[in-house]
Amino acid sequence: QVQLVQSGGGLVQPGGSLRLSCSASGFTLGHHAIGWFRQAPGKERERVLCSGPYYTSTYTDSMKGRFTISRDNVKNMVHLRMNSLKPEDTAMYYCATSLRAQCSDETYWGQGTQVTVSS
Prior knowledge:
The chain contains no helices and 11 strands. By secondary structure, the chain is mainly β. The radius of gyration is 13 Å and the shape is globular. About 0% of the residues lie in helices and about 50% in strands.
């Protein structure tokens, strides 16, 4: 059974850092892409980053240089490191996969984790 379980997140002050984790089970992470999404209150969900088997893509300019992905294919986990956080980064964050090597049409989703950036 494919499952994504998220951890991390919470409340952080502007300029601070957080790491979100996505633990995968039921499939081999090393062969598949994991996408990170976020949805702020009153806004549509947006794609943040994609971690493929051999690449990483960033979809939003405001996150370039601040958000990075790392993969631990042994532990079947993907981590999203977020630095220099801003209040506008406040959102529910999700990891997801389509069980393919590309980030698209994701069908399996983590439960989501809240990130709040506030002083």
